Every structure is written in structure tokens, then in C-alpha cells.
Amino acid sequence: MKFGELFAQLGSAIAAFMFFKAILDQYIPTQLRISVGKHSGKLFSFLSPYIQITFSEFAGERLMRSEAYSAIETYLSTTSSAQARRLKAETLKNSTHTLSLSMDDNEEVADEFNGVKLWWASGKTTSKNQTFSFQPITDEKRFYSLRFHKKHRNFIIETYLSHVMKEGNAIKVKNRQRKLFTNNGSSWSHVAFEHPATFQTLAMDPIKKRDIVDDLTSFTKAEHFYSKIGRAWKRGYLLYGPPGTGKSTMIAAMANLLSYDIYDLELTAVKDNTELKKLLIATSSKAIIVIEDIDCSADLTGQRSPPVKKKDENDPLKRMAREETESKSASKITLSGLLNFIDGLWSACGSERIIVFTTNYVEKLDPALIRRGRMDKHVELSYCGFEGFKVLAKNYLDLERHELFDTIEGLLGEVKITPADVAECLMPRNIVGDAEICLKNLISAMETAAQVETEQISVFRQDYALIFRKLVKFFKPERVECNERTKLGGRFTHY
Ligand SMILES: Nc1ncnc2c1ncn2[C@@H]1O[C@H](COP(=O)(O)OP(=O)(O)OP(=O)(O)O)[C@@H](O)[C@H]1O
Ligand SMILES: [Mg+2]
Q1: Is-above-0.80 flag for pTM?
Q2: Buried (b) or exposed (e) across 42-53, using 16+ Cβ within 10 A?
Q3: N or C: which end of the chain has fewer CB within 10 A?
């Protein structure tokens, strides 16, 4: 058949179809047609064993993107990148170097949960915008639709959908750019939090480390438990130890482990307890609130001013001085203000928060501040042990073993050296075959420290002997004669 004939036949078929459609449209009433359409849809869904749920990007008239839509989009990102043939890529919010992938319009991917198979499809509806414009503006509404067998209706609605929301939000929290806040008066300002510390790179006793990681992870899963026992969902950590033992590094590792923001509270910049309360209310959940060097941060003695004597009250100068002192002390944070911050009624106005105090002098702190229940976990970060050294050697030099390790283990048992100092010795200085030089540097630093320590002990003992002799001479002069003869002081110097 020639092409011209084929074209003519096709044209007459279309004309015949249009003719019959016009007659049908004219003689069959509109109501009947709509009703037939509706019933055929019902008939189809009655016969189909599948149920469909649609999640619109912008629900109703709201201008805000639907939380459910964006949680689904995040939840499906891994499945989409594995299955969809057409994907959309965009950079994550607040991040220029991380891409997020989602399926393009009109794609479908399959998912499986607890052995139940279901399908997610992406789609969009397009409508013309009513506003006047020379350029026709189209309004696109995107949606996801979920299709599953009707026998799984209850399981999907009650279990699967909440799993999708939870997972999607958890992935979002993990991917988001975290923030490091600092307080300026009663408000917070922030920068991006980009500290790379992790528990893997933290040098400390592995059993202690495991315990802390377990404690933190079970805390994040314990929402139900905390509400069951009637406690606010928060946990207090006290990190103490000498400078350079990794307290601040551990806070960064905690934030990275849990994907939390950090609120670094500078107590000295807070005017009073009211301002402290405002700051607390302004913190979000999934956050670590840190007060570093709590012993130096404020005068937290909790002492009240002594009662005013009657004669002082009559003296105008003394009264003025007292009022000035009182007004000054009213603009300071008190111990009770801080205790309220940690576990007063207001402390429960956010959830999933960790409060961390650090100090070099745990013995200086008021016991009320750090009692169990307030600071639930007390963690001592101490001088570098051999296990800690091995972590640093792996991090800094990529070394898991070396013949000098035995010497180092021996010296670490004798000398108090902080992980910060060990790390400094292990820092490669761009020399080829550097690792051994670094280890030798560390050994000589520890040998020097050991020598200094011995000298200090002997000086201390000499001083001690001198003081002892003076005391004895003061109380029992006749015994000193005897002691001098037996060279008591000299014996001390030979220690
Ligand atoms: N336990 C550790 N593991 C790994 N690195 C550590 C550790 N301790 C210290 N460092 C290294 O030493 C540096 C200082 O440590 P960090 O600031 O955490 O000490 P700190 O205990 O907070 O000291 P300070 O009491 O003076 O605040 C860190 O940048 C880190 O590189
Ligand atoms: Mg620190």
C-alpha cells in the first residue's frame, strides 16, 4: 500500500471516531457520562488488589513544603539512586560539596520492609496560573504515591509509614550541616560545626571509650524510657582531667557521633539567671550544651550574703555600699540558677539534650553541681596510656606496630605525658621515613620528662626534710641535736 493511501485511511478513521464521539456527547446526558466514568473507576479499584496513598509536596494552600514529602524524598534517596533511571541532583542545604539524589518525575522504585513489597512513584500535576502575565505561568505540583497490596493495609499505615518518617528525618539530621553556637548576651549566634574528631581517633582506654559510646547511643534511643520513668530526656556528662587530655576533643566526637549541634555556653558573658534561662529556652533539641572550665566560669559558691546588722542599716554610707554590692551580685549567675538550668522545670522545655561540663579541677566544684542524676556520667580523661598511644600512632603515622613500641610502653608506665604532648611528638615533619624519627622524638621527650620528674621529687624531698628539721627544732630542740648527728636530712637527700 502506498504511503498516500495509508494516510488517507488513517484520516478517515479519525474523522469517523470524531463523528461518533460528537453524536454520543450530544445524545448521552453529561450526568450519565460522569457517573459511568465514576463507576468504572470504582469498578476498577474494586477489582484491583492495590491501594494507593498520595503525598503532595505542598499540602492544601500551605506555602511550606510538606514535612512528610521531604522525609519521603530523603528516605527514598538511597533506593532511588540504586533503581531509578532518571534522577535529580541538588546540593544539600548549607553545603556546597554534598549532593543529594532523588528520582525524577514519573519514575517508580520498589521498596521492601519486613518482607512486604511496595512501590513508590513520583509524579506531578501541571495547571495554568490564574494571575495575569504575558508569559503563561504554569503551576507544578509534585507528589509521591505509595502503592501496596490491600492485605497489608494496617501494617503499612501503622508501621511502615512511621518507619519511613523516622528514617527520613534521621537521614536528614545526619546529612544536615551542624552548627556550633556561642552566646552573646541572651542570644545565640552560630558558625558551621566542622570539627573532624571521632571516637575512633580519640586516644583513651578502649573499654572506657566503648562504655561512653554505648551510653550515648542508648540515650538517643531512650525517648520512650525517659517518658515512662517521668524524667526529662537529657543526660549530664562531667569530663575532668589535666589540660590536653582530650576533653574538648571528646565533645566534638560526641557531636559527630550523634549528629547533634553544640551550644558552647560562655557563662561569664551571661548577665544573670534570667538571661541564662532565656538561653536555655532558645536551644534546640538534639544538642550538646557545653560549659567548659566550669570551675573558672563563674563564682558558684552558692553562699548567701550575711544578715544585715541593725546599726549598719542606719548608717547611710554602709547602706549604699551594701545596696551596690547587692545590685552587682544580682547581675551574676548563682549556683541555684545554674542548677535550675540543668534540671529545673525549664530544663524540660526541649528534649534529647546532653549537658557537658569540663574542668581541670574536679575537687574544686560544689558537690551539688555534679551529684549523680545531675551530671549522670563522670568521665576522667587522663595521661596517655599505651592503648591511647596506639590510637595516636595509627592516626598520625599509620603504624600498628613497631620495634620501638615496647620501649614506649615501658616509658608510658613511668612518665605522665598528655595525649596532646604525645600527638605533638608524632606530628610528621615532611621527612621521608618519618615515623621512626617521630617515635624517637617521643622517647627522648619522655626520657627528659622522667629525668625532670626525678629531679623534682628529690628537690621536693630536700625541701620537705628542711621543713621537717625546722619544725622538730622548734618543738624539741634536744632531739634535733640527735637527728643532726644521725644526719637525718642527708638521708632524705639520698632518696
Ligand atoms: N585523648 C586524645 N585523643 C586524641 N587527641 C588528643 C587527645 N587529647 C588531646 N588530644 C590532642 O591535643 C589537642 C588538645 O586537646 P583538647 O583541647 O581536647 O584538650 P582538653 O582536655 O580540652 O584541654 P583543656 O583542659 O586545656 O581544655 C587536641 O587538638 C588533640 O589534637
Ligand atoms: Mg578543652
Answers
A1: no
A2: eeeeeeeeebee
A3: N
**If you search the block for the grid coordinates 484491583, which residue do you land on?**
48
Residue bearing cell 474523522:
15
Task: Please report, in angstroms and rounded to a whole number, the separation of the first and last CA atoms in the chain.
Answer: 119
359 pocket-lining for ligand 1 (C-beta < 6 Å) = no
Mean pLDDT across 425-429:
84
343 by Cβ neighbours in 10 Å (0-12 / 13-18 / 19+) ranks as middle
CB 332 within 8 A of CB 299: yes
- Between 458 and 357, where is the model more confident? 357
Q: How far is the CA of 435 from the centre of ligand 1 (A)?
A: 21
Interface predicted TM-score (ipTM) of this complex, two decimals: 0.98
In short, whether 244's Cβ falls inside 6 Å of ligand 1 is yes
Is residue 245 lining ligand 1, measured as CB closer than 6 Å? Answer: yes
Quickly list H helices, 86-186: 153-155, 161-175
Supply 477's cell numbers. 630542740
Grid cell digits, residue 426: 608524632
Report for 53-62, 231-240, 324-333: range of highest mean pLDDT? 231-240
